């Protein structure tokens, strides 16, 4: 059976406080809350108890006993505030790793176990740029991810390149494939929390078997025994497989095999049985009973790259593997999502599910809608075809063999991101004769390297030189008045909206520069001049681009 790779994408949960609430006698709110480190959080207590008898606790299990900690007894915790006017809400500001705990409120000190049962789990997350392998030559892809799905859905993601703002978008997936040829550093942030930016990451090398990245601190460095505030360099495999070696009639040895030799002698591995983490071994080899079920593995700290499932013996096998872990497709086009399954008996129930948010059971796709088609190859490979894609089709898709089996929401399927096409002009759409500019056919996620782009000028196809033909970038160097007009791009039959390019004469640019110089000679209060200069800095750089070094593009 052909083995496919499975990558777990960290997709932020869409549930808000009101959507995830659980009704308990003590805590009012979600059973689990995930919040970024450095943020503030409000934990609300149920009005069941009178205020005079309410108390907030943290609770943990120690030696089979529940241990409570009373916040009211420690006045040194200035980051903690309890508001009696607002349902005894506990506010924790500037969250730190130490705040990661179980919380409960009420009058339940006599029964500590009750506090544990009705507790709310607060998880403090950090932001990290995940670097994931691709099948597109010697490139990788980037994902702005958190260590747990955020309870509050991010408004948008902001990307930075060499500490400069790059773009803002709703998708956590970086728009371009990245190679090691660019000596640049990437970072990301969540809109509204730009001061909580992820540590920078650079891609040092990408080969056919491995890729090496350098993190400027953060969670990834902690896996290498490096302090979180220090940088570290890590080599990852581009593929991982499980080798199966029979030891006897009853036992099989499984070997987690990366595509390259990992030099770190402390490299640990993650094993999964029935898609659930197997906590009893982090070794490369695992001996299991032949009839023990399906297994997969990953390199620890790189769990996003998980192997396809294998079984102790073919007679006991029950696995589902997907042809692609993630797909980026253009709005209006069609896409095929494939799932290959193996089972010793033909399953009676086979359904595709659409999951919009991590943790959901998913929407069962039934019937043959106008845009949905279902195909199969020899009753082993199932294909879901979605035609005329819309942004609403962006979701995770899973193939479930038997609905009676327990649904595992953390098991990855195929993530589909539907993108539109837009034309972006760098440095801007109003430039000066003689300047060098670049037009980009921009998407919200990286299309494959073999994607062909067609450029249009005033609604007519452009005839380009070989080095720019079918390229997503169109460079005009130097730009002249004959380039003034509207530009659009297309992938297959999908065409982007038009973008207008304005080119000023060089003499006009000089005149504007003289006017600007005269204005700057007029005495201006220092504070007003500072803000005015910040506002016009980008405009001046763009309009008077003939004075810039065009080769920087």
Automatic annotation (TrEMBL):
<keyword id="KW-1133">Transmembrane helix</keyword>
<feature type="domain" description="Ig-like">
    <location>
        <begin position="237"/>
        <end position="311"/>
    </location>
</feature>
<dbReference type="InterPro" id="IPR036179">
    <property type="entry name" value="Ig-like_dom_sf"/>
</dbReference>
<feature type="domain" description="Ig-like">
    <location>
        <begin position="136"/>
        <end position="204"/>
    </location>
</feature>
<keyword id="KW-0732">Signal</keyword>
<dbReference type="InterPro" id="IPR013151">
    <property type="entry name" value="Immunoglobulin_dom"/>
</dbReference>
<feature type="signal peptide">
    <location>
        <begin position="1"/>
        <end position="20"/>
    </location>
</feature>
<protein>
    <submittedName>
        <fullName>Uncharacterized protein LOC114441983 isoform X1</fullName>
    </submittedName>
</protein>
<dbReference type="InterPro" id="IPR007110">
    <property type="entry name" value="Ig-like_dom"/>
</dbReference>
<feature type="domain" description="Ig-like">
    <location>
        <begin position="412"/>
        <end position="502"/>
    </location>
</feature>
<dbReference type="Pfam" id="PF00047">
    <property type="entry name" value="ig"/>
</dbReference>
<dbReference type="Pfam" id="PF07686">
    <property type="entry name" value="V-set"/>
</dbReference>
<keyword id="KW-0393">Immunoglobulin domain</keyword>
<feature type="domain" description="Ig-like">
    <location>
        <begin position="25"/>
        <end position="105"/>
    </location>
</feature>
<dbReference type="InterPro" id="IPR013783">
    <property type="entry name" value="Ig-like_fold"/>
</dbReference>
<dbReference type="InterPro" id="IPR013106">
    <property type="entry name" value="Ig_V-set"/>
</dbReference>
<keyword id="KW-0472">Membrane</keyword>
<keyword id="KW-0812">Transmembrane</keyword>
<dbReference type="InterPro" id="IPR003599">
    <property type="entry name" value="Ig_sub"/>
</dbReference>
<feature type="transmembrane region" description="Helical">
    <location>
        <begin position="513"/>
        <end position="532"/>
    </location>
</feature>
